[in-house]
């Protein structure tokens, strides 16, 4: 989470990574060049998207990724030159890729780190180009109001919550999104079309088209691992929390569509070029360590209860669990904590319904001035309690939790409310980022010995295998390049 405010993106549909396959020959408009109107639309939303997803990731790795993306995009025939496309690497710890009209294609650095060769990178970006080529966004404009990019933290900051007139349903839906999830779902036919186009672009560029299937397998394995690791805290990642829902069901489909095609993978080149890329949370946006969130720049920390997991973004931290949802965020502060708290309630209600706490209580949490209040809201046939708990950090900034739980269960998050604290200079300095370190397997190295070098306290072997697309029985060969996640290089 970082400081700042932003706008909800309305009226533009985002093409997310959900790969499948279809017949390319019958795809309407797939070779029509980018129009001036599409270029203008993309140019309008591009800076907003960058802000929402942590900005661009800079450096030699990003330059390489951009080059591969432009090369594969040219295969589409949408533009005559590489300069007709804008390929951005987003500074986000979420596995995601998407595109908007006008030749704007995006991938997160986290998703790139999950890949294991250049063909997989070209396949993911080619799939997104396929969505643009087939004008899927434009063909889904009728559903844009329900399917716009939205995160609950962003909604809290802007006071805009999409949904029906029931605030309870609106809040619940907003919290379920997580802070960096793209909710647009294309039809199965459209996903099949984008996949087929991506495979076509791979083949045209000389890549092995089967890479589409292998990157899907890595996504499926990562999703399963995430659920397993969260399960250790009695939490699970439901389907709606995945930016790539159910990729496992599409692995075989993509492999079948690719056929027996051959081509280059450029594995060693790819691994060498992404060596050193940032992995996981960027400390400038705060980091999640187990059940604890720590922000070294804002000098604060809090912990979530067992059974809940966090998703971090530049705008907010989403807290999700079966018994409630929450967001931790900030907003404009005039120096009056009660006014701030009421403004958060007003923003949560939006234009749908006036929302205000029954009362406001003042308190102190670990020496920090705080205030809180709860509003009971009708949620169809039941009721929910919406609580805002705000904290004053000096005279110029405030932070807050906004939570939603079944009526009468507002105590669910009491421990979290009381865990907010300032951190010391030494604690802040101890927060170190993680990086991808590409190493060459030496004689005698094993999965276990290399996994022991991973910068995690648990699941080292499982993380190592998923990161390197290794099955449970796969072994290593001397001279092979593999990825590690380390604290320093």
TrEMBL record:
Signal peptide as annotated in the record: 1-23
Transmembrane segments: none
Cofactor(s) needed by this chain: Zn(2+)
UniProt EC number: 3.4.24.-
Record keywords, A-Z: Hydrolase, Metal-binding, Metalloprotease, Protease, Signal, Zinc
Domain (LysM): residue spans on this chain: 437-484
Name of protein: M48 family metalloprotease
């Amino acid at each position: 989470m970082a400081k700042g405010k932003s706008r909800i993106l309305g009226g533009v549909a985002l093409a997310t990574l959900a790969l499948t396959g279809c017949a390319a020959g019958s795809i309407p408009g797939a070779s029509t060049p980018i129009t001036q109107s599409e270029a203008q639309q993309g140019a309008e939303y591009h800076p907003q998207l960058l802000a929402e997803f942590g900005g661009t990731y800079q450096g030699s790795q990003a330059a390489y990724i951009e080059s591969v993306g432009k090369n594969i995009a040219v295969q589409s025939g949408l533009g005559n030159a590489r300069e007709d496309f804008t390929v951005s690497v987003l500074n986000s710890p979420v596995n995601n890729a998407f595109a908007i009209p006008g030749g704007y294609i995006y991938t997160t650095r986290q998703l790139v780190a999950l890949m294991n060769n250049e063909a997989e990178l070209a396949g993911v970006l080619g799939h997104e180009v396929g969505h643009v080529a087939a004008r899927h966004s434009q063909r889904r404009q009728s559903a844009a109001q329900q399917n716009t990019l939205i995160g609950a933290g962003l909604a809290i900051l802007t006071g805009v919550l999409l949904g029906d007139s029931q605030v309870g349903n609106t809040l619940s839906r907003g919290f379920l999104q997580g802070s960096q999830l793209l909710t647009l779902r294309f039809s199965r036919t459209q996903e099949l079309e984008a996949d087929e186009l991506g495979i076509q672009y791979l083949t045209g560029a000389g890549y092995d088209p089967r890479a589409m299937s292998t990157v899907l397998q890595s996504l499926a394995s990562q999703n399963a691992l995430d659920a397993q690791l969260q399960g250790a805290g009695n939490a699970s990642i439901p389907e709606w929390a995945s930016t790539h829902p159910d990729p496992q069901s599409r692995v075989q489909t993509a492999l079948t569509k690719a056929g027996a095609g051959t081509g280059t993978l450029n594995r060693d080149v790819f691994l060498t070029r992404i060596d050193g890329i940032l992995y996981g949370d960027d400390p400038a946006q705060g980091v999640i360590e187990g059940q604890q969130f720590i922000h070294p720049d804002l000098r604060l920390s809090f912990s979530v209860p067992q059974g809940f997991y966090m998703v971090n973004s530049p705008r907010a931290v989403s807290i999700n669990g079966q018994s409630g949802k929450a967001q931790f965020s900030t907003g404009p502060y005039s120096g009056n904590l009660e006014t701030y708290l009421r403004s958060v309630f007003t923003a949560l209600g939006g234009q749908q319904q006036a929302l205000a706490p029954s009362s406001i209580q003042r308190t102190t949490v670990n020496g920090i001035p705080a205030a809180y209040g709860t509003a009971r809201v009708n949620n169809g046939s039941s009721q929910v309690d919406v609580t805002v708990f705000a904290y004053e950090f000096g005279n110029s900034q405030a932070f807050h939790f906004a939570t939603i739980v079944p009526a009468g269960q507002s105590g669910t998050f009491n421990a979290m409310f009381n865990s907010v604290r300032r951190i010391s200079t030494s604690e802040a300095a101890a927060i170190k980022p993680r990086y991808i370190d590409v190493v060459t397997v030496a004689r005698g190295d094993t999965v276990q010995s290399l996994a022991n070098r991973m910068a995690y306290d648990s699941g080292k072997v499982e993380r190592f295998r998923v990161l390197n697309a290794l099955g449970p029985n796969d072994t290593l060969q001397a001279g092979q390049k593999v990825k590690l996640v380390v604290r320093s290089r």
